[in-house]
Structures are given as structure tokens and as C-alpha cells.
């Protein structure tokens, strides 16, 4: 939540010097806007003063404001795009917040939990607050320390020292970036539990919530650890802990292409990302098995003996990633015979869960920064569990704090609603399940090879669905007036149904629910009335244990009560036509792998319906891409 950018360039015309901070920061905010779009703001230091502009609403509002009231040229600046926590999305509550008589500007991502007591203390000292935010409290605290405790003496360590002292007083999760008019060529940042990455340039340096904040300028990035402060100038990056002791970050190369974070000719990131899915699955599979079908998950550096001793798996995730976890449960239990639970991260650690050194925690997170999941992983580690992260974001916090990581290679996912990351997460979870089965001898090598071969065919099958998307798009457009849509599925179709409903809620703001089809008769069937649209994910009729007949019975139950049924079924399933107003066929595939296909029409449906309503599918209301608060 919230996107943060910082920049310092050179004043003497060397190397890349001379980038105007305004341009760099705005470009970073444009790329980071998916993290929050309740307001945007920017501050620069020029001519010994801080100048700032901020505006509620999307970044375009700030840009209009800047056109009406330009900022001076500067080589030092910070910028923020907000997902509101404390205080509504108003101009007043937008960041930056100023203190020290307007000489200090601060932006923030996270929540200062002890803001109330700090605010009281500062009010008693005479500070008058303009906003309802916890951020303004942090700004005032930093200003008070700099001015009153340090005498405003930049020589005494200046803003960096003041930031150390402020961080010692702050509780909660935060990334803070500050600039001060007394130190025009410095940006100071601090990080506790919220994301922050340094970008190393030549004659200029950058800060960003993630690398997209500076990807147009450099591919050299530095990961920061917990409770660290970083001071950047055009030539130097200095890292300390909150007590001033020198600390180190870890440099890495960013290997994604900025073009992959552009729309590539599609009207929205979401549509592009839906179309990226064949590649997302392919890239996630690539290089992870040899020609004999042996899984070679080299990056999964957990002692194989430990993995053999695992007697329980708990998958921790939120939202779409949790639905990927539910799919994983079916596959892992079937292939490995290890009891597998899936739990929403925010529920997990508050219920005294049974976790020990034989428990394997598998966290799933696109961003790698979801605070609920991070906290749950930390808790599980404290209990002695081994932790594996399935993650799409290189260098992010959850994989860094886990014992091992299996990266998904979906490429940057910019649209707030997750699509390609979901398919990549499921793919990675299958690989993990097969790896465990291989290690523990639950499956013969030939069986694993066959499943991998089936997985290898998935990208082309997803492409086939995309090539025939017009029919489902048309249905989506025609249902723009729907008030409620239900989704039914059984077995692996159940999490797919829930994901289909989530996509519709997120994008089209329509009431949507996903149910286990067998559960309907236990209550939810009361919702069905004449004309109620119901999507049904129908399993393949092939195979001895097929649930096809059971799901067809469930379709009949809702049709008997007036529902309009829309069915996702396997090619060749002619029988189902009799029970459906619309049928969308997906290519034949083994049941356990079917979510990689059945999800896709539901994504396209939600996209088409929301677009028909004129909604912004990339930035749905009230949401943010990375949820970095609990
Ligand atoms: O980055 P994560 O995968 O940890 O994010 C988890 C959820 O916040 C995320 O999946 C959310 O539900 C998306 N809006 C789904 O489209």
C-alpha cells in the first residue's frame, strides 16, 4: 500500500546528472500508482526551501495541479501515492506532510501504531496538526527532534540522526522518506516491516517501494533489512540501523524489462496480464525439471532430509493467493499424502495454531510484502517450522525471511486484481508438490514425468482459450446490469469458483459468491430466484472418480429454482449442454490441473463486464496492490 519514490541527482553536470527530480519522481509514481491511488503528492528542495504539491484522487489530478502551479527545478525530491489508512482520501491528508516550519517534508507507507500518544505529546508542545493522519505525527516528531533536541544542527548528523531518534520512538510498520531544506542534496529513509529498495545510479541514487519506482534509470538495486535507515546523496548510499551502527544491504540486478510493465497495446494492464498467462505458466515451469522428469528445484535450499520429515503442511496466503493455496492442497495431499491445511494469514497466528519443526509452511504471495502473510510466516518460524515462499517479486521481504523460495516467473503484475500471478502460483505449487512426492517416494518417476508433460501442455491450452475469448467477452458485456452472480464448483473447481467471484467483486463491484456446489442445498440455495445468474465449473466427465454427475445434479437443483446457468466444461462434454444457457469449453486436461484453464474464462468475464460498466479495471476502487498493513 502506498507507493514511495525518492531521488537525488548531481548538481555539477556530471554523468546522468541533471535529471529534474520532478520528472524522475513523477515517472516513479506513475509506475507505482498500482500500490494506492487515493491521493498523490511530491516535494522538492530548491533554493533553500521545500516546495510541495499534493492532491486527492489519482496521479493525473496531481499532474494537473503541477501544470497549474509548477514546482521549481530541483535535484532532490520525494513523491507518494496513497492508499488511505488514517484519515480519508482528501487533499489535507495527502502526503507529503511538512514540519519544522515547512522546512521538512515527509512521506510514509504503513501505520504508526502509537501515533495517538505521540500526537498528544506534540500537541502539548504546541504543534498544531492540519490532517487526521499518523504520518503528520511522524513528520512533527522528526521536525521536533531535529529542531529542538538537536538544535537544527545539520553538522550533528542532521536529518539522519534525527531519523534514528524518531524511529526509536515509533511503533508499527513504516517506510519513511524525508527531505530537509537545510540539507538540499540528501534524502533520508527508514524502514520497519514496510518495503523499501535503493536504486544505484551513476551520479544519482533512488529510493522506491519496489524497483518499478526507478526501473527507467537503473537495474542495480539494494535490498534493505528490517529496522534500517538509508541516507542517499547523488554519490553515496549509507545504511545504518536505528541506533546509527553501520549496516549493509544486499545488491542485486533487476532482470525484468520495463516494457513488460507496460500495456503492450492492450487497453488495460489487466487484459494484457490475462494474455500474458501462457507465458507466465511456461516461464514458471522452465528449467525446473530434467529430461527424465526429475524435478530440479535448485533454489529450494531446504535440507531434503527435513522435507522428508515433514508431517504437516500449512499454506498461508490472502485473497487470490489463498485460492491458489486451496488448489495446491488438493494436489499436494493427492500426490504426497501429507495433510495440508490452507489458512488465511491474518487468522493463523491469532488462534494458537499447532506448528512445530515437522511443519512445513508454504506462504504464497505475489508481492512478497503482504503484511498479514509476513507476520504469519514470522510467527511460524518462531515456532520452529520450516518456511518456503512461493513469490513473484524478487528480493521482497517474505522470500527473504523464508528458509527457501520458489519464485513464480509471471513478470511484473501491475493491475491490482491478480490474474497471471494466480496461474503462476498454482503452477509453482504443483512443482513443489511433485518435488515432495519425488523426494518422499510417493510417486514413481514415470508418473511425475507424465504430470510434468501435462503441465507442459497448459500454456498452449490457455492460449487456445484466449484465442476464443469473444464469446465470453460478449456474455460479460451483456450482463453489465447483473446485481448478483453466483459461482459453483467442486473439488479443485471450488477455489476456482471463489476466485471467479472475487474477480467480479473487485472489478465490477457486483455482489458475487463462490460456493462448493455440494454445499448449496445446505442453505445458500435460498438465494436462487428467477433469473439469478449462476456460473458452474463442471469437472471432466472422464475418469473413475469424476464428480461430473454430482455437479450436473447441482446444476439441476438451481435451474429448478429459476437460475440462469452458465457452464465452464471440458471439450466433448455434450451432455452438459442440456442444462446450460451458455457453455464455454476448455481443452481436455487432467482434473487436478484444470484450474489453470477453468479460471481464465472467469477472468475474461469479469474484465468484460467491468469494462462495459466503464470501470477502471486496473485500479478498482478502495484497493491497492500490495497490502502492507495488518
Ligand atoms: O501480494 P499477495 O499475493 O500476497 O496479495 C494477496 C492479496 O492481497 C491479493 O491476492 C488480492 O486478493 C488481489 N486483489 C486479488 O486480485
Radius of gyration over all CA atoms, rounded: 26 Å
- Average of per-residue pLDDT values: 93
Q: Mind telling me which CATH architecture of the largest domain this is?
A: 4-Layer Sandwich
**Uncertain residue ranges:** none
SS strand fraction = 15-25%
Tally the helices.
Answer: 18
CATH homolog superfamily of the largest domain = Aminohydrolase, N-terminal nucleophile (Ntn) domain
Distance linking N and C termini: 11 Å
**Percent helix:** 25-40%
**What is the spatial order of strands in the main beta sheet?**
3-2-4-1-10-9-11-14
Tell me about this structure.
The protein is α/β, with parallel strands linked by helices and 630 residues long. The protein folds into 3 domains: 3-260, 4-Layer Sandwich (Glutamine Phosphoribosylpyrophosphate, subunit 1, domain 1), CATH 3.60.20.10; 262-456, Rossmann fold (3-Layer(aba) Sandwich); 466-618, 3-Layer(aba) Sandwich (Rossmann fold). The protein has 18 helices and 24 strands. It has an 8-stranded antiparallel beta sheet with strand order 3-2-4-1-10-9-11-14, with helices on one face. Helix 4 crosses helix 5, helix 7 packs antiparallel against helix 14 and helix 14 packs parallel to helix 18.
Amino acid at each position: 500500500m502506498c507507493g514511495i519514490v525518492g531521488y537525488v541527482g548531481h548538481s555539477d553536470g556530471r554523468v546522468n546528472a541533471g535529471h529534474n527530480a520532478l520528472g524522475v519522481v513523477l515517472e516513479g509514481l506513475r509506475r507505482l500508482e498500482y500500490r494506492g491511488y487515493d491521493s498523490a503528492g511530491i516535494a522538492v528542495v530548491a533554493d533553500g526551501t521545500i516546495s510541495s504539491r499534493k492532491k486527492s484522487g489519482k496521479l493525473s489530478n496531481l499532474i494537473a495541479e503541477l501544470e497549474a502551479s509548477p514546482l521549481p527545478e530541483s535535484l532532490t525530491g520525494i513523491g507518494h501515492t496513497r492508499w488511505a489508512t488514517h484519515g480519508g482520501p482528501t487533499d489535507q491528508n495527502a502526503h507529503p506532510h511538512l514540519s519544522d516550519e515547512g522546512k521538512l517534508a515527509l512521506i510514509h507507507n504503513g501505520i504508526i501504531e502509537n501515533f495517538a500518544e505521540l500526537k498528544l505529546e506534540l500537541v502539548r508542545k504546541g504543534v498544531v496538526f492540519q490532517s487526521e493522519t499518523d504520518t503528520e505525527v511522524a513528520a512533527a516528531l522528526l521536525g521536533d527532534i531535529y529542531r529542538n533536541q538537536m538544535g537544527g544542527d545539520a553538522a550533528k548528523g542532521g536529518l539522519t540522526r534525527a531519523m534514528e531518534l524518531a524511529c526509536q520512538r515509533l511503533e508499527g510498520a513504516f517506510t519513511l522518506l524525508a527531505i530537509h531544506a537545510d540539507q538540499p542534496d540528501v534524502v533520508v529513509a527508514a524502514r520497519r516491516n514496510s518495503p523499501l529498495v535503493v536504486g544505484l545510479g551513476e551520479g544519482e541514487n533512488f529510493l522506491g517501494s519496489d524497483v518499478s519506482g526507478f526501473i527507467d534509470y537503473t537495474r542495480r538495486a539494494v535490498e534493505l533489512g528490517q529496522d534500517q535507515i538509508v541516507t542517499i546523496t547523488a554519490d553515496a548510499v549509507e545504511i545504518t540501523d536505528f541506533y546509527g551502527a553501520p549496516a549493509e544491504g544486499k545488491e542485486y540486478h533487476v532482470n525484468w524489462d520495463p516494457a513488460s510493465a507496460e500495456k503492450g497495446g492492450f487497453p488495460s494492464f489487466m487484459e494484457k496480464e490475462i494474455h500474458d498467462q501462457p507465458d507466465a505458466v511456461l516461464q514458471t515451469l522452465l528449467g525446473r525439471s530434467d529430461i527424465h522428469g526429475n524435478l530440479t528445484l535448485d533454489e529450494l535450499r531446504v535440507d531434503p532430509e527435513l522435507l522428508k520429515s515433514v508431517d504437516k503442511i500449512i499454506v498461508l496466503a490472502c485473497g487470490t493467493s489463498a485460492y491458489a493455496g486451496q488448489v495446491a492442497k488438493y494436489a499436494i495431499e493427492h500426490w504426497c499424502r501429507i495433510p495440508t491445511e490452507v489458512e488465511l494469514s491474518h487468522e493463523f497466528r491469532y488462534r494458537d495454531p499447532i506448528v512445530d519443526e515437522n511443519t512445513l509452511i508454504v506462504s504464497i504471495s505475489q508481492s512478497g510484502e503482504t503484511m498479514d502473510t509476513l507476520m504469519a510466516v514470522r510467527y511460524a518460524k518462531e515456532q520452529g517450522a520450516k518456511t518456503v515462499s512461493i513469490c513473484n517479486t524478487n528480493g521482497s521481504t517474505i522470500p527473504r525471511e523464508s528458509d527457501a523460495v520458489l519464485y513464480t516467473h509471471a513478470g511484473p503484475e501491475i493491475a491490482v486484481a491478480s490474474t497471471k500471478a494466480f496461474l503462476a502460483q498454482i503452477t509453482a505449487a504443483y512443482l513443489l508438490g511433485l518435488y515432495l512426492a519425488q523426494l518422499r517416494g510417493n510417486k514413481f518417476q514415470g508418473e511425475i514425468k507424465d504430470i510434468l508433460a501435462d503441465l507442459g501442455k497448459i500454456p498452449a491450452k490457455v492460449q487456445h482459450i484466449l484465442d476464443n475469448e469473444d464469446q465470453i467477452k460478449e456474455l460479460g458485456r451483456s450482463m453489465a446490469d447483473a446485481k448478483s452472480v453466483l459461482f459453483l464448483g467442486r473439488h479443485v473447481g471450488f477455489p476456482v469458483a471463489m476466485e471467479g467471484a472475487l474477480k467480479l467483486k473487485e472489478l465490477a463491484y457486483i455482489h458475487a459468491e463462490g460456493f462448493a456446489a455440494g454445499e448449496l442445498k445446505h442453505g445458500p440455495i435460498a438465494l436462487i430466484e428467477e433469473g439469478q445468474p449462476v456460473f458452474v465449473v463442471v469437472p471432466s466427465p472422464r475418469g473413475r472418480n469424476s464428480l461430473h454427475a454430482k455437479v450436473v445434479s447441482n446444476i439441476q437443483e438451481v435451474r429448478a429454482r429459476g437460475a440462469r446457468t452458465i457452464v465452464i466444461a471440458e471439450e466433448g462434454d455434450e451432455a452438459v449442454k442440456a442444462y446450460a444457457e451458455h457453455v464455454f469449453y476448455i481443452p481436455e486436461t487432467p482434473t487436478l490441473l484444470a484450474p489453470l484453464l477453468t479460471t481464465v474464462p472467469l477472468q475474461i468475464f469479469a474484465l468484460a463486464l467491468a469494462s462495459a460498466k466503464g470501470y477502471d479495471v486496473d485500479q478498482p476502487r478502495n484497493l491497492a496492490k500490495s497490502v502492507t498493513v495488518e
